User: What shape does this take?
Amino acid sequence: MSASSAFNDEKGGSSSVGEPEYGHDPASGGIFSSDYKRHDDLKEMLDSNKDSLKLEAMKRIVAMIARGKNASDLFPAVVKNVACKNIEVKKLVYVYLVRYAEEQQDLALLSISTFQRGLKDPNQLIRASALRVLSSIRVTIIVPIMMLAIKEAASDMSPYVRKTAAHAIPKLYSLDPEQKDQLIEVIEKLLADKTTLVAGSVVMAFEEVCPERIDLIHKNYRKLCNLLIDVEEWGQVVIINMLTRYARTQFLNPNINESLLEEGGGGEKTFYGSDEDEDEDEEEKEKKAEVAAMAKRKPYVMDPDHRLLLRNTKPLLQSRNAAVVMAVAQLYFHLAPKAEVGVIAKALVRLLRSHSEVQYVVLQNVATMTIKRRGMFEPYLKSFYIRSTDPTQIKVLKLEVLTNLANETNISTILREFQTYIKSMDKDFVAATIQAIGRCATNIGEVRDTCLNGLVQLLSNRDELVVAESVVVIKKLLQMQPEKHSDIIKHMAKLTDNIQVPMARASILWLIGEYCEHVPKIAPDVLRKMAKSFTNEEDIVKLQIINLAAKLYLTNSKQTKLLTQYVLNLAKYDQNYDIRDRARFIRQLIVPTEKSGALSKYAKKLFLALKPAPVLESPFKDRDHFQLGSLSHLLNAKAGGYQELPDWPEAAPDPSVRNVEVKESVPEWTKCSSREKRKEKKVEKPFYSDSEGESGPTESADSESDSASGSESGSGSEESGSGSESEESEEGSESEEEEEEEEEKDKKKKKKELKKPVPETESEQSSEEEDRKIKRKSKQRKSDSESESDEDEESESESSQSESEDSESEIEVKKKKKTAEMKPPSKPVKKETKKEKKEMSLLDLDDFEPAPSPQVTPVNTFLSNSLVTDLEGLSLSDSVLSPATIAPSSVLKNYELLHRITGEGLSVEYCFSRQPFSPDANMVAVQMQFTNSATSDTKNLHMEDVKLQSGMRVKEFPEIELLSAGETAMAVMGIDFCDSTQAANFQLCTHTRKFFVSIQPPVGELMRPIFLTENEFKKEQEKLLQNLGQLMGMNEITEKLTLDAKCRNEHAIVQRVTTAANLSRVPCGSDKECSPPVPPPDHPVYRFAGRTVTSSSLVLVTVATKEEGAAQLTVNCEKMVIGTMLVKDILLALTQ
Amino acid sequence: MIHSLFLVNASGDIFLEKHWKSVVSRSVCDYFFEAQERATEPENVPPVIPTPHHYLISVLRHRIYFVAVIQSEVPPLFVIEFLHRVVDTFQDYFGVCTEAAIKDNVVVVYELLEEMLDNGFPLATESNILKELIKPPTILRTMVNTITGSTNVGEQLPTGQLSVVPWRRTGVKYTNNEAYFDVVEEIDAIIDKSGSTITAEIQGVIDACVKLTGMPDLTLSFMNPRLLDDVSFHPCVRFKRWEAERILSFIPPDGNFRLLSYHVSSQNLVAIPVYVKHNITFREGSSQGRFDLTLGPKQTMGKAVESVLVSSQLPRGVLNANLNPSQGTYTFDPVTKLLSWDVGKINPQKLPSLKGTMSLQAGASKPDENPTINIQFKIQQMAISGLKVNRLDMYGEKYKPFKGIKYMTKAGKSVLQRMHIVNCK
Assistant: This one.
C-alpha cells in the first residue's frame, strides 16, 4: 500500500504541474517547484504561537492532501499541534494524522497520549472524537491500546461514545484480525444495547467482523426488528440485509406449500389479492385458514418472528432513502410469502423517478424479479416505457423489463411501443429493441408471425445496423419453423447483395445452407455469388460460405460440385488458419476418396442434423441466487466479502433461542426466570398479564391495573388506578389501609368500577349479594397482594412499586421468587378462617338451591383483613387446615386473544373470570384486557361479525371509545357456549383495523360450582349411575392415575382440580376436622361438584387417593363429551 | 464500506481525493476513464465498474463524477444514495456544486467528508447536524474569521446526534416564526405523434422551509389525501399517523427540507396543460423540408402557462434550419442538431408558432427517424393533480406562526411528444 501511495504521490505531483492553481492569494500560490521553500514557511507558521497562522497553515496542508499531493514531510511539525486548543486546527490535524500516520508510525505515536487523555474527558464529544481518531490511526503497535479503549467505550454512559466504539471495531479488525475473538465479545455486548443510535453501527461491525456468528443475533432479533424504524437510514440498510440472511437460516420457506395451499386452502391467492390494503387482516385470515387446514394436514405456519420482521420492515418502503427501499424490497422478495411480495412493486417503481444511477440499479433488480414474479410489475408496465431522454443503459434495461413482462394480453401494446423505439435515433437502443422483439416472438407463440413480418420489413431499413440485427434475430426465429417461411429465406438471400455487416451475412448464409431444401433454386446461386466474393469476405462469413458449400454438396452435388471444389480451394490458401483447417476437414468429410474413413458415410448426418432452436433467454435469468440489491447481483459475479444467501432450512431451528422474554401468550409464573431481561425491553404487556396471574381472579383487580395508565403497576396499585378514573379522585388518593377501614366506601367504589366495564350488569337494585360479593372480592384481592408482596406494610410496598420501575421490578422479582416457593401452601391457608365460615353460611343459601340462579356466587377466597399477619405465619408454617370450600384459587389462566405484534400494538388477553355473567346466567363470563402498547391511540374498540355454532350466543362487551397509547382497559363479555368447546369467532374492530379472533373455552370453564354436602353428592352420583340403564348413556368415566410427586397433599390436589375446572369442593366428613400437614395416610377421597352453565347438568368429580400416589379419578356427568374432556383435563392437571 | 472518493471533472481530471481507510492509489481511476471514453454520452458511464481489486461506484451530478472506491460487497444503492447525499450537502453549503465551488471551499469540503463518513460508514448525513458541526461559509463569516481567527467548526456536540429527533437541533430561536410549504408537481408524459397521451404521471413534492422556535409539533392535513398513491417521507414524519389518519404529523427539521414526495395515481387521467401540433415534411427531389410547430394551452384552470421551452433533437441529416418564431427566440445547433425554442408565456389568444424550412445535406437520404419534442413549462398557483392542503396546526409551542403555502406545476424531466416526419414522394 505504501509503495503504491508513493507512486500515487509522484503521479499526483507531476500531473499537477499543468493543473491550474486553486487559490489565488500569494501565500497558497506557487507551484510544485517551490514546494520545499513553501513547506518551510508552513513549518514556521505551524510553529508560531498564533492560532490563526496555524489554522492558515493547516488549511493549506489539507488542500494539498485533497489534491493528492504529498505533505508527509510536514509530519513532525503538524503532529505537535495535536493538543492545540483551537478546535478547527485540532480537527485538521486529525485529518492529517489519519492520512499520514501509517507512513510515519514512530512519529504518530507521539500523539497517542493526547488521545488517551481525551478518552477520559468528561465531555462525550471529546471522548468520542478521541476514540475515533485513535482507532483510525493505522499503527499496529497501538492495537492493545485500541482494544482497551474500545472495550471501555463499549460500556460508556453515552450512547454516542458507544456508537463510536462500534465504528472502531471494524477498524481494529482490519488492522489486526488476531483480535477477532475479543472483538466478538465487544460486539456481543453492543448488540445487546437498546439504543437506536448504536444498533446500526454495531450490526455493521458484526457484518464486517463475524457475519458467520448468526447465533449472536438470536437474543437481539426481536429488539432489532422493533427498533428498526427508528434507526438512522444507513443503519437500517445494514440491519435489513443482515436480517434477511438471518431469516433464511431460521425460518421455513413460506412458499413451501404454495401448490398445496392454492388448491386446498380455499383460494388463498384470491383473498390476498382482494384486500391488499388490509394485510393485517390477511394475517388473521391466514391464521384462520391455517387453523382450518390444521385438521387436514400439517400446514405451513409462519413463525411469529418471521412475521414480525416482515411487518416491521414494511413501513420502510416509504423511506426517502433508495437504499432502504431496495433493502426492504429484497427482503420481501427473499422472505415473504409469494402473495405478499407485491407490495414492493410500487415502491420500486417510485425509485425509477430518482437519479439515473438509482434507476440503473433498481432496473437491474426489477429485471431479475420480473422473471420470477411477473405479475407483480404488470400493473406498472407503462412506468417502464422508454423516454428518449433516458441514457442508453437505462433504455436497454427498461427494454429488458418490458420483454420480461410481455405476455399474451399485453404483447400488442408492447409491440406497438417497440415499433416506435425502432425509429429512435439511438442506434444501440434500436438494436436492443430488435433483439427484444425476437425474444417476445419466441416466448409468445401468438405473435411470432407478426414479429417476423415486422422484422422482415425492417430488412429494407436504410440503416445497416438495424437490418443486420434483424437478420440475426430472424435467423433465430426461423429455426423454430423453417418450412413455413421459405419466402423469408428467399427475401433474405436477396439481401446478400446489399448487407455488408459480417454477422448478418453469416447469418443469412447459414440459414440458406440449413434450409437449402426449401430454397433449392436460390441456394446454388447464392453460393455462386459468394464464391466470387470469397476473398473479400470477413472470416466469419468465409466460414459460413464453406459451410453452405458443404451442405449444398451433400444435397445437390450435381449443381454445386464444382463450386464447392472452387471454394474449398480458395479456403485452402486463406491467410487464416481456422479457415484452412475448416476447408481441409470438410473436404475429407464430404468428398469421398479411397482414403476417406468411415466418417464420410455419415457426412450427411453430421451436417444436416436437426439443430435445436436457440432459446432466447433473459440475461437476468437465475440471477436471483445472489441476494438482490447486492453488488454481486449487479455484477452477476461474487464480490469480495459477499455473504451467500443461505437456502431455507428443511426444518426450522428451535425458535425459542430468540426468547429473551417470557412469551406473553403463556403467562405462567413458573416461567418467569428471565425477569430482568424482560424488564429491559420495556414490554408492558407481559408484565400485566403476569401480575394478573398472581393477583387473583377478580375483575376489579384487573381493571385497576389497566387504568394505571401503563405504569406497569401490579396488583397493588389499585389506588392510583382508581384515582385515574375521574369520578373518584378523592378516593384515589387514599392509601390502602384507609380503604380497609372504610369498607363501605370501598364497596361502593368497587361497584362503580365494576360498572365501568359492564354497565348493564349492575342495576340499581343490585342485591345484597352483589355487595357482599364485591366485599369479598376486595378482601380477597387484599389478601393476595399481602401474601405475595411479603411485606408487613403493604402500602409501603405499593407506593414503592408505583414510584419507580426499577425498584418495582426488583420487588416483582422478589415476589416471583417468593410466590414460586410459597404459592402452593399459601393459597389454601387463606381460606381457613373462622370468619370465612360465617360467610360461607351466607353463601350456602344460594348454593343450596337446586337450580342455580344467575346470582350464583363463585366460590372465592374469603379472608378478613385482620388475619393478614396470621396468614403470613401460617403460610410459612405450611400447616394445612381443611377448608370448607376450596376456591378456584387465584391462578386464573390468561389466554391470548390478540398478540401485540399481530394487533399492531394492541394486545388483548382474556381469562374466564368465573364470575356469573349477570345479564344472562347461561353465559360464561369472559374478561378481556386490552392493552395498547402502540404509540397512537386506538378508538372505538368493539366487536363485530360474530360467527358462532348454532345455539351459541354472545353478549358483546360495550364499545371502548378510546384507548390511549400505553393504556389498558378491561371489558367483560358473555358467551353461551352451549356446553361445547366450540370456539366463538368474531372480529375485533378498532377505528382503523379489524382483527379476526376466536375464543375457545377449556371444558372446565363451562361449568359453575355448586355446593353439595357429601351425602347429597353421593345421592346425585347414584342417580346418575342409575340412569346408566336408561337412555342417558354412559355417564361415569373412571381413570386410574399416578399423582404427580408434588401433588400428593390435599391442598395441591384440590387446587389443581379447581384450577382445571370451575368446581367447588364437597366438604367431606373425614377432612372436616383437621388435617395434618403431611398428606393424610388414610387415602382421603376428594369430591367436587358443579353444573354446566347452559344446561345445568350435574358434574361430579371424585378423586380417590391410594398408596404411593396412585389415585382413581371418576367423573360423572350426563354430558358424555364434557365428561370425557373433563377427565382428560383433570388427569393432566394432576399428573403434571 | 466506502474506501475512498475521487472527484473527476468533465475533462477527466481528478481534482479532489479523500480516503477513509488506507490510501488507494488514484491510478484506480484509470478503469473509470476507460469506461468514460467508451461511453458515447457522459451519462452512459456505468455506475458500477468492477476492477481487479476494487469496485468503482460513481454518480454524475453537475458535470462532476463522484467516484467511490469500494473493496468488498456493499449494496450499490447504499453508495449511490450516499454520494447523492454528499452532493446535496455541498449544494446546501455552497449554493452550487461546481468544480470551482468545491475547489474554493476545499477545507470545508474536507471537513464535511470527514464528518459524513467514519471508516467508510455514514456517520452524520443530516444537514442540521452537519451545520452544527461545520458552519456553512458565508461572506460575513469568512471575513470575521480572517480577522478574528475564529473557526467555522462548531464546538459543541450536535444535540440532534443524541436526541430522539436527530434532524432537529435544540434551542432554535426565531423572532419571526414562519413555516412555508411549497407543493410542487411535475408532470412526466409520453405523447404520441397524434397528440394522445400514452403515459403520464404526476410526481409531487412538498418542500418546506420551517423557521420556528423551540420544538414545534406540526400536523398538516390534506383536503383530498386519497389522491396520493405512493408517498415517501422525511424521517420526521410519523408513519403510523399517516397510515391511520392520512395526516402528516411531524417535528420539523430546522430550515429547508423535503417533507414528502408523492406520486399521484396514474389511474387518474392526467391532463397535459400544453399541446403541440407539428408538421414536418420533406419532398422527394428537394433538399428542403418544411417545419411547422404550434403550441397551445389546454385545461389550465385559467392559470397562465409560463417559461415554456421546447426542444428537439432533429435528425442527423438536417443541415440547418431557417425558422421564424411568432414569439420568443429559437436556436439551432448544426453540430448537435439540437433545436430549442424559448417561447415564454403562452397567450391563448395568439398561439405561438415556429415555422420555416430545414435544409438537408445535398444528396442525403430523407431522414426516417422520428425525433421527439421535449416541452418544459411552469404554471404558478396550481397543483395539477388538484391536491390541496387543508390546514396546518402547531402543537407544543405557544406562539402563532406565520404559515404560507404555495402551489406550482411544472414539466418534469420529460414531457415528450413523439414527432412524425412525413416524406412525400
Q: What stands out?
A: The first strand of chain B starts at residue 2 and ends at 9. Residues 225 and 246 of chain B are 6 Å apart (CA to CA). The radius of gyration of chain B is 26 Å.
